[in-house]
# Entry
Amino acid sequence: MAESDTQRPECWVDDQRMDALFSPFRERNANPQSWESKMKFWSIQITEHLRQNGQVVFDTRTVSQIFKRKGRMPSCMHTVVQEMVRQGKLQKVSDFEASAQPEGWASWGLNVFVKRPLLWTVDTVMGKANHSIEEEVVYVEILKEKASELLHRVWSNARHQATDYVLDWTTVRDMCRDICPDDRSLSLVLLQLQKEAKVRIVEMPSQHKVVKFARKEQRSVTPVSEIELGVHRLKETEAHLSSEVQKLTEGIRRCLEDAKFYIGKGLKNSAKNALRRKKTNEKILERREIALETVHGLLQRIQDAESEKMVNLPFDIVHVD
# Structure
């Protein structure tokens, strides 16, 4: 990331001060006050950068490049990251995954993170790097903040208990792009909510994921029921039919324009073909609109129900030809 993308402290222009801050840490016992001051400086810089850029995860190599100054990267970041891990401000992603995985969910975590880059340097003896194990780290406090923000976003958008707490993964992603700018961040935030027992994730036969959120009054999320999955399938059908209706309507409009164009050019056969396509699309559109109206009606009945127990509808009655 370019230096201009991150706000720098006032001392950034002081070469003498920055030389000291960029150099490796000396032994802590030699000058504890200076050691703590330097550690505090870099901890603040990392925290502010992550907040400014909406990030929750990073690695030593990347963060060193972010703070590059006059062609030089700080030589102390591995010590900073190690100390922040020791303080509990940071956590290795692998450790976080393990702590966030309830029984039966290991495969989801494996699928989400198995290809993650291993890019974290750990000093092992007296603060000196005798060997390196590189891996990503997550900033715990920011992750929790984003998890809470995402959950409150879902709550604020929910209008109906029976339909608005079980969402497709892509719906969650699109709803919260300003909170989680990429799939990686979203995966980690949902893992945090999973750790807090606020979400459950189900992988559907079609390989896409469905996320169930706890309601505001619930201390923890309940298992995803067959009724909730049926409602979710209805919502998917509604979205598909709405898209089809829009495409068919646009197609009919284009056919009519084509027919007018061909008539103006004296191409009667071409005009007739355009009108035939228009008529065919109109017949298909009529069927789609009837099906869409049926789905709308079913979802309205479900949304009007006071609880899941009142939902007793045949979810398979809608057929799309």
DSSP finds eleven helices and six strands in the chain. Strands lie at 57-58, 90-92, 137-139, 166-168, 199-203, 209-213. Confidence is low (pLDDT under 50) at residues 1-5, 103-133.
